[in-house]
Recover the amino acids of this structure.
């Protein structure tokens, strides 16, 4: 899925939540922002948000997470070169 398509999905979900009068939590906003800004899936953005919140190292082989984590202060443990 392209980054543009992923953003469209997130915006659609956000619109549906607003119409249903569901207020997302701060954590969901952070996950949404990480996903759209770093081009991550919601699932991967959730792992990154958790590592950021806990001050934990993130173990992954995912290229997008490897690129997104260090600028946000999250150390990476990986076996990729």
């Amino acid at each position: 899925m392209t980054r543009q398509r992923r953003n469209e999905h997130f915006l659609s979900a956000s619109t549906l939540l607003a119409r249903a009068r569901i207020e997302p939590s701060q954590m969901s906003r952070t996950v949404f922002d990480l996903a759209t800004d770093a081009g991550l899936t919601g699932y991967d953005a959730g792992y990154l948000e958790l590592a950021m919140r806990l001050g934990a190292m993130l173990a992954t082989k995912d290229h997008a997470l490897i690129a997104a984590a260090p600028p946000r202060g999250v150390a990476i443990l990986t076996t990729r070169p």
